[in-house]
Amino acid sequence: MPSRGPSLEDLIGIEHSKLGFFQELRQTIEALKDANTQSAQRRREIAAILDGITDIMMVLSSDLRILSVNHVFRQTFPETPHPEGLYCHEIFCGDDKPCANCPASASFASGDICRETAIFKIGGRNTQFEMVASPIHRPDDPESHILVFKRDVSREKEYQAKFFQAEKMATIGMLATGVAHEVNNPLTAIFGFAEGLRRRMPALKEKVDPRVMEDVEDYVATILLECRRCQDIVTTLLTFSRQKTVSFAAVSLNAVVNDTLKLLRSHLKQRTQAKITVRTELSENLPKVHGDEHQIKQVMLNLLVNAMDAITGPGRIVITTFQSSEGVVCLSVEDSGCGIPPEHADKLFEPFFTTKRSGKGIGIGLSTCMSIVKKHQGDITVASVPGHGATFTVKFPVNTDTTT
User: Which terminus of the chain, N or C, has fewer Cβ atoms within 10 Å?
Assistant: First the structure.
C-alpha cells in the first residue's frame, strides 16, 4: 500500500510549531537589541564620567607597564601618543627603575589603597602630584592590575605655603610685640639708672678708691653698652616680624646682612662654639637695590638658617655681596655642609619639598624666598657639590630711582 502523507492536522501542527519558534526568535532578537542599546548607553555614561575626571588616570600591570590611560594623560603627554606597553616611571621620571615610594608598587604589595605625593618635571616645569593607587580585583582575570590617579596640586601647595608663611609671620609679629613691651620697660629703667650713675661718677671720684672707681666706671659702661645692644635686637626683631604693606625703596644689601647677623648673634655664638665660623665679604660702595627691606631680610634669614642647618660638625659660612659683570647686585651665602644631591637640585624651591628630618622644617622657606625674589624681578641660583657644601646666590636689579 502506498504510504499515507501527513494529514491536515499534522500540517497545521507543524505550522504552529514554526510560528512559535519564529516568535520566540523574534522576542530573543528584540531582547538582545534592548540589551545592546542599554549596554551602549551604559558605555556612553561611563565614558562621560571618565571624560569628566580631570586627573591623570592609568591602569598598570604588575610590572608597572601601562595598560590604558584616559584623555587627561594624553593631553599631559602629547609627545607620547601611544603609552600602552611603556613603564610608568619611563614617562614620569625618565628612569629605568620604579620611583622611590611608588604608591603602585606599595599597593601591589599590600593589596590596599596607597597614597603618596611626589614632584615630577613635566613640560619643563616641576609639578607636584597627589597619587592614589587602588587594586583592581576581577574574578575572571587572575592577573592583578592597579588603577592610579595623579592629581596636580602645584597651585594648591603654593597657596598653602603662602598661607603658612603668612600665619608664621603673624605669630612672630604678635610675639615680638609682646616681647617689645615686656622687655623695653625694664630695659628703659636699667638704662636710665645706669645713665644716672654715669653722671654722678665725677662727684664720687675724690671720695672712692681709684681702683674701685675704675671698676664702677667699667661696669656702668658695660651696662649701657649691653642695654643699647638689647634695644637694637628688639628693634631688629620687630623689623623682621612687623606686618606692613609692601613698600619698595632703595635697600642696602650690606645693611640687610648686618641686621640679620645681629638678630642671630646668640645662635651664631652657639654655632661658633661648635667650630662653625661665619665670615662676611661685603663689597664697599655697593649699589642699592629697589625692593622691600622687610622681605629681603626674610630671604637673608632663611638662607643663613638653612646654611647653619646644613652643617653638622665643624664648618664655615661665607656671606658675600658684590656687583656682577651683568650689572646686577648679588648676595651669596656659601656653606661647607652636606651639599645637595643632583636629583633634588631642581625641586628645592617647590613648596613643601624638604630633605630635613621631621621637626626641622616643612619646606616653605626656599619657596618663600623664590616668591619674594621673583617679586623683586630677581633670581636665585644654587651651586652645590654633594658632601662639599652649597652656594645660594640671590640677584637683584640695581635701584635706578634717583629720588631715594
Answer: N
